[in-house]
Amino acid sequence: MKKFVSKFLMAVLAVTLFAVPAAWAENIKVGAILAVTGPASFLGGPEARTLEMLVEDVNSRGGINGNMIELIIKDSAASPEKAISFAKQLIEEENVLAIIGPSTSGETLKIKNICEEAKVPLLSCASAELIVNPVAAYVFKTPQNDSFAAKKIFMEMNKMGISKIAVLAGNTGFGKAGKEQLLTIAPEFNIEVVEAEVYDKSSNDLSAVVAKIKANKDVQAVVNWSVVPAQAIVAKNMRQAGWDVPLFQSHGFGNIKYVEAAGAAAEGIIFPAGRLLIADSLSDDNPQKGLLLEYKKNYEDKYKETVSTFGGHAYDAFTILMAAIAEGGNDRDKVRAALEGLKNFAGTAGVFNFSAEDHNGLGMDAFQMMTVKDGKFVAYTGK
C-alpha cells in the first residue's frame, strides 16, 4: 500500500527514526473515544478506520523517536455516559499520553474537564466551538468552528437574497451549540430566524416539524444542524411535502452516506465543509491538495468506501499529535506545549495555527461552500 502520512510527518519520522537507542524504546499509548457504532457511526467509523491505518503506517516506519504507537480505541456509540467512563479508564488504567475524539460535541463537552484536570491532551474530532471556547490548556479540536460555518451559510444567503429562515436542530450537543450560533449571528447578516425547532436525534420521521415550519409563508430557506441520520430525513420530508425552498446543512453533512440515505432529496443541498470532499478539483498550488489526494486514495483503496470529512478530522488529530510527540516525547506537558505552538500545519480541514488563545487553529477560509449534484459533492458556485 502506498504510504500516506503527510510530507511534514514523513520528515519528522525521518529525523527521529533513529534518535533514540532501541534499548530505550517504549510503546506510546494513545487513546481514542469514537462512535464506531450507533447513530453517529457515519462519524466514528471513518475516524476509527483512519486511525488504524495511520498507526499501522507510522509503526511500519519505526514509530516516533523509535517508539511504537499503541492505539486503544473505545467505542462510545455516541453515548456521553460511555465517553465519561472510557475517558477515566484510558487516563487512570491505561495511562495514555493523549486522547483523540470523541466523535460528537456532546461527548467531548462531558469529558473536557476530565482531561483538563488530569492534564491529558485531548484532540477532539467534534465541531462545537464550546469545546475550545473558553480555552482549556489541554483541550484542542480539529474540525472547523461552527460559528464560521454559520457565517459562511449566511454569506451565501445574502448573495441569494434570502432574509427570513427557519432553523432546525437535533437535540445533541452539536445541535444545541449550532442553533445558538445561528440565532446569535443571523442579525449580523440582516437575516431573521422566523421559525426555530429542536427535534429528537432518534427521530425517523420529521414530517410534523416540517409541516409546522412550512406553514409559515415567510420562510425562504431552511438550515438543519445535526450529525445524525435525521439530516437525510429532513431532506426527504421537505421534498415529500412538495417544499422546494433551499435547504442548508451544517458542516456535519460531510459524508456521502448522508446523500445516499436521502437519495434524490439530497440534490441541491448547500453546506460548508473542508476541501477534502472536492480534492480532485483543487488547484495544484493549494497547500492541502497533495495530502488530501493521498489520504483519499489510500483510505478508499484500503476500505472500499468514499472518504469523509469525519475521517479527515481523525487524520488531522493523529498527524498533529505525532508532530507534537516528535517534539515533546512521551510527556503530556511537553506534548501539550508542542501542540499549542504548532504553526502552518497543513491538514485535511485546513492549515492549522494553534496558539495559547486559539486551540482550533483554523480560520473561516478553511471552509468551502458545497452542494450535491447528481448524487455527488461539488463546489457550490451559486445560481
What does this entry look like structurally?
The chain has helices spanning 7-16, 41-60, 80-92, 105-118, 146-160, 173-185, 207-214, 230-240, 256-262, 289-303, 309-328, 332-340, and strands spanning 28-34, 69-75, 98-100, 122-124, 139-141, 164-170, 192-199, 221-225, 247-249, 270-273, 345-346, 351-352, 368-373, 376-379. The longest helix has 20 residues, at 41-60. The model is unreliable at 1-5 and 14-24 (pLDDT under 50). β11 (345-346) and β12 form a beta hairpin. 54% of the residues are buried. It is of the alpha/beta class and 383 residues long. Helix content is 40%, strand content 17%. The chain has two domains: 7-144 and 281-352, Response regulator (Rossmann fold); 146-273 and 368-379, Rossmann fold (3-Layer(aba) Sandwich). It has a five-stranded parallel sheet with strand order 2-1-3-4-5, sandwiched between helices. Strands 7-6-8-9 form a four-stranded parallel sheet, with helices on both faces. α2 (41-60) runs parallel beside α11 (309-328), α5 (146-160) crosses α6 and α11 packs across α12 (332-340).
Topology:
Blueprint lengths: L6 H10 L11 E7 L6 H20 L8 E7 L4 H13 L5 E3 L4 H14 L3 E3 L14 E3 L4 H15 L3 E7 L2 H13 L6 E8 L7 H8 L6 E5 L4 H11 L6 E3 L6 H7 L7 E4 L15 H15 L5 H20 L3 H9 L4 E2 L4 E2 L15 E6 L2 E4 L4
Parallel strand pairs: 1-2, 1-3, 3-4, 4-5, 6-7, 6-8, 8-9
Antiparallel strand pairs: 10-13, 11-12, 13-14
Helix pairs in contact: 1-11, 2-11, 3-4, 5-6, 8-9, 11-12
